[in-house]
Amino acid sequence: MPIEKALEVAFANDLDLVNISPNAVPPVCKIMDYGKYRFEQAKREKDAKKNQKVIEIKEIRLIGVGIDTHDFETKGNHAKKFLQAGNKVKFSIRFRGRELGHPEMGYEIMERFANYCSDVANVEKAAKMEGRNMLMFMAPKSGK
After folding, report:
1. What number of other Cβ atoms are within 10 A of residue 38's Cβ?
2. How far are the Cα atoms of 9, 39, 143 from residue 32, in angstroms, in the given order?
3. 3-class DSSP state for residue 135?
């Protein structure tokens, strides 16, 4: 239908003529209430945003490999609390001085953390040395 006729129909019904596909031959237009369309689109985006869950990465740091059992349990309980809240946890150990010569001690501690938190989490990224630090990432188990 010619543009003039479409504009008359839209104006008669108190609606808008919206150009859907301007590059098509002939151009495709639609008669609609554009204000209502934009409102519904914004409402859909708002609902989609409301249903999202933002996952944070919480970090638990150890300075050195000499950690006592109570300190280990305290850090482990904090990690479990973070994981149960749905956050990821990054464990990091900073090696000082001669400790750098014994990375196997760090791997043992990371393995203990992985076993301690295994009921609520999976190891996402295994323990790995990066300079003076050893890092390991854990993510909460899916399926509640």
Report:
1. 10
2. 11, 13, 43
3. strand
For 5-37, write each residue's pLDDT tens digit: 888 888 888 888 888 888 888 888 888 888 888
Which residue segments constitute the domains of the chain, with CATH numbers given?
A: 3-48 (3.10.20.80), 57-140 (3.30.110.10)
Helix (H, G, I), strand (E, B) or coil at 10: helix
Task: Read off the pTM.
Answer: 0.61
Task: Annotate 92-116 with b (16+ C-beta within 10 A) or e (fewer).
Answer: bbebeeebeeeeebbbebbeebbeb
Nearest to 57 by CA among 36, 38, 83: 83
Q: How far from 43 is each of 34, 36, 40, CA to CA, in Å?
A: 14, 10, 5
Residue matched to tokens 């904090």: 78
DSSP run (H or E) holding 132: none
CB 84 within 8 A of CB 120: yes
